[in-house]
Design brief:
By secondary structure, the chain is of the alpha+beta class. It contains two helices and four strands, in the order βαβββα. The longest helix is centred in the N-terminal third of the chain and has 21 residues, at about 15-35.
Length: about 100
């Protein structure tokens, strides 16, 4: 399952490294459920109003032939949002395979 990133241009170097590192560690868990499918991560940073931090949201999608898995997470910290999205994807994959 290759990972496609959309919207990496909006991230700074530090957040980009965090996201790719966490993705590479969480990748094998999802690959067990759907070995030949593509994981698409759409990253969006919301505008900074007055502070220096921006809210980050990630939309994830796995398109399998019979099942579509979609998850969404957002937070102020890249590490937290990346862990949240992969936890949600794994829970959804387990739930869909039980059916």
């Amino acid at each position: 399952m290759p990972i496609q990133y959309v919207g990496l241009d909006d991230l700074n170097e530090k957040d980009m490294e965090k996201l790719t590192s966490i993705s590479e560690k969480a990748y094998p868990k999802l690959e067990r459920y759907y070995p030949d499918e593509t994981l698409v991560l759409v990253i969006k940073t919301h505008s900074r109003s007055q502070g220096t931090r921006a809210k980050i949201s990630i939309h994830a999608k796995i398109d399998a032939p019979r099942i579509k898995i979609i998850a969404h997470a957002d937070d102020w910290d890249m590490a937290k949002v990346a862990h949240k999205i992969f936890d949600k994807l794994e829970e959804e994959a387990k739930r869909k395979l039980k059916r």
